[in-house]
């Protein structure tokens, strides 16, 4: 396995609030002053994310479990997905955490690509993984999800739990309702996702889901098929620009995310 010229650094953990700010925001009405402060915190969360990620794309967001560790076949699948996306020229974006998120970020780094994470403050599973070139840590789940979708032209769902299902269904709902364009969505691991597919088919029979909604995504075990689907339906269909916007020194904007070149590894364009 190729190694980076300098060992990746593990980002410092973010202190966990004794009372999550999401809970405070969502627990009902507060005083007008406190509501104003909460709103300012939300706007600041968005502003920090926009400022950090504006120059990182184009991205593909990879969803997946934080609980599947190195040595599991799905972890290696995540690494290969990250490598493949980086070689297509994408920045690999994840939730920034451990498990399969780490695997995808790691694959991007080992392929010499760009790797970013949008982490969340949680009482568990919340440390950012060491393979991100840039990490944004959000206070609020809904801010984090907006950032994961805003900069991405495709979405890959690796096996995962409730968080992964939440993010996957958000992607499908945004596409179904035309809130975002029909970017490609790929579910990797056909055996793992068969229960989800069976549920959707039952919903089609019940009339609560349209049969055409089953065409919003591709399910496959073949990485080459997944990458070709993304290349065709993201790069070609949306004519992604090769030239990314440049940060302004005058405005003090953060530098572009640079690819982590690994000695002896192919460049993302190869």
Note the main attributes of this structure:
alpha/beta; Rossmann fold; disordered C terminus; 8 helices
Summarize the structure.
With 270 residues, the chain is α/β, with parallel strands linked by helices.
Description:
The chain is of the alpha/beta class. The protein has one domain: Rossmann fold (3-Layer(aba) Sandwich). The protein is 40% helix and 12% strand. Strands 4-3-2-1-5-6-7 form a seven-stranded parallel beta sheet, sandwiched between helices. α3 (73-88) packs across α4 and α3 packs parallel to α8 (223-236). The longest helix has 22 residues, at 32-53. Residues 1-18 and 263-270 have low confidence and may be disordered.
Q: What is the CA-atom radius of gyration, in angstroms?
A: 19 Å
Unreliable segments (pLDDT under 50, ≥5 consecutive)?
1-18, 263-270
| Biggest sheet architecture | 7 strands, parallel
> Which sequence of SSEs, written as H and E, runs from N to C?
HHEHEHEEHEHEHEH
- CATH architecture field: 3-Layer(aba) Sandwich
State the helical fraction: 25-40%
End-to-end separation: 18 Å
Number of domains: 1
**Mass-distribution shape:** globular
The CATH first-level class comes to Alpha Beta
What oligomeric state do the depicted chains represent? Answer: single chain
Strand content: 5-15%
Structural class call reads: alpha/beta
Strand order of the largest sheet: 4-3-2-1-5-6-7
Total helical elements: 8
CATH topology: Rossmann fold
List the helices and strands and how they pair.
Elements: H1 21-26, H2 32-53, E1 59-63, H3 73-88, E2 91-94, H4 100-110, E3 115-120, E4 134-138, H5 141-150, E5 152-157, H6 162-176, E6 185-188, H7 194-206, E7 218-220, H8 223-236
Parallel strand pairs: 1-2, 1-5, 2-3, 3-4, 5-6, 6-7
Helix pairs in contact: 3-4, 3-8
């Amino acid at each position: 396995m190729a190694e980076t010229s300098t060992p990746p650094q593990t980002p410092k953990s973010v202190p966990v609030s004794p009372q999550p700010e999401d809970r405070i925001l969502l627990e009902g009405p507060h005083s007008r002053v406190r509501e104003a402060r909460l709103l300012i915190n939300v706007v600041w969360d968005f502003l920090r994310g926009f400022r950090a990620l504006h120059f990182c794309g184009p991205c593909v967001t990879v969803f997946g479990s934080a609980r599947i560790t190195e040595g599991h076949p799905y972890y290696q699948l995540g690494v290969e997905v990250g490598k493949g996306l980086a070689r297509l020229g994408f920045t690999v974006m994840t939730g920034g955490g451990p498990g399969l998120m780490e695997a995808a970020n790691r694959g991007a780094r080992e392929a010499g690509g760009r790797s970013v994470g949008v982490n969340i403050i949680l009482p568990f599973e919340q440390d950012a993984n060491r393979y991100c070139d840039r990490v944004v840590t959000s206070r609020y789940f809904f801010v984090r999800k907006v950032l994961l979708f805003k900069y991405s032209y495709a979405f890959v769902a690796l096996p995962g739990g409730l968080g992964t299902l939440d993010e996957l269904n958000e992607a499908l709902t945004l596409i179904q309702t035309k809130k975002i364009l029909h970017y490609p969505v790929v579910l990797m691991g056909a055996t793992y996702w068969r229960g989800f597919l069976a549920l959707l088919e039952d919903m089609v029979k019940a009339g609560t889901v349209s049969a055409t909604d089953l065409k919003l995504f591709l399910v496959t075990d073949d990485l080459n098929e997944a990458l070709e689907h993304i290349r065709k339906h993201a790069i070609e269909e949306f004519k992604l620009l090769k030239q990314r916007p440049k940060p302004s020194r005058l405005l003090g904007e953060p530098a572009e995310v640079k690819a982590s070149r690994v000695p002896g590894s192919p460049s993302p364009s190869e």
